Amino acid sequence: MFRLVSLNLNGIRSAATKGLIPWAEGLSADCMGVQELKAQAADIAGKFESIAGMKGHFHHAEKKGYSGVGLYSKHEPSDVVIGLGEHDPSGEFDAEGRWVELRFDKPGRKLSIISSYFPSGSSSEERQEAKFRWLAIVEPHLARLAGERDYILVGDINIAHQAQDLKNWKGNQKNSGFLPEERDWMSKLLHLENQARLVDVYRHLHPDTTDECYTWWSNRGQARAKNVGWRIDYQLATPKLALLARQTSVYKGQWFSDHAPLIVDYDLAI
User: Fold this and answer.
1) Is 243 helix (H, G, I), strand (E, B) or coil?
2) Distance of CA 197 to CAs 1, 225, 239, Å?
3) Which 3 state secondary structure label does DSSP give 123?
4) Taking the CA atoms of the chain, what radius of gyration do you get in angstroms?
5) What CATH number does residue 9 fall under?
6) DSSP 36-65
7) Contacts of 253 by beta carbon, 8 Å cutoff, 6+ apart
8) Which of 32, 56, 85, 136 is 20 to 30 A (C-alpha) from 254?
């Protein structure tokens, strides 16, 4: 089995103090996508270049202590793509460190694993507008990729797609992360009847779960203790790869950040 993990760290140095490294060493993962590194290359050097036998590849934000993504792999990629490049014409989001893609291509097969951190719009109207700009850029890019190769995108999407994906859905319909426009964007991404269509792997395997599906909890109001959570961390796969998913779980045995790891096992040989 190919074990793929996604986890928003809310700071890799903070997560490390909470037991991230020994946990990863016992997980036997093939790849682990992480988001919100909140670290620069100098902070990674000598400490976090590799975890549990997996070599890391990173896209750091220009701003210190902000954003950043990584993708650790036991397997040597054929190519590494950092950032969206020409698909982010203004460079706005590449400056924020939101995309790292490992390609495992061989004759007769093109395969990518991607770690991405979608913007949050909860802090201000300006950041919500930035989030909408990101969604407008990344959707056609995902469509292009799906026309060229199979891939699995793991990451913090910062959108709860359906009412079953968060506890207080009625009270959050005007809040970032559950806005109608964001949910419509997800629906379009997941239900296009062409090569751009992606599969929400967790929902493919567990279509009806509610309380146990959450991956993020606010630090306010004892949200975690009361399980007032949101499912905003995903593994999105092209249909061929989604069919290879055998089991998935949200790990809640330890807490490394305000997110929980999402683990999926695929019947896939890299």
Assistant:
1) coil
2) 24, 36, 7
3) coil
4) 17
5) 3.60.10.10
6) -----HHHHTTTTSEETTEEEEEE--SSTT
7) none
8) 56
> Please, which residues have CB within 8 angstroms of residue 66's CB and are 6 or more apart in sequence?
38, 96, 97
Domain range enclosing 219: 2-266
Q: How far apart are CA 179 and CA 128, in angstroms?
A: 10
Query: Into how many domains does the chain fold?
Result: 1
Kindly give the confidence (pLDDT) of every residue in the chain, 270 residues in length, as a single tens digit, with 9 standing for 90 and above: 999 999 999 999 999 999 999 999 999 999 999 999 999 999 999 999 999 999 999 999 999 999 999 999 999 999 999 999 999 999 999 999 999 999 999 999 999 999 999 999 999 999 999 999 999 999 999 999 999 999 999 999 999 999 999 999 999 999 999 999 999 999 999 975 544 479 999 999 999 999 999 999 999 989 999 999 999 999 999 999 999 999 999 999 999 999 999 999 999 999
Which run of H or of E encompasses 56?
strand 54-59
Coil, helix or strand for 192? coil
Closest CA to 167 of 232, 117, 120: 232
Residue 243 near residue 264, CB atoms below 8 Å: no
Residues shown for the chain: 270
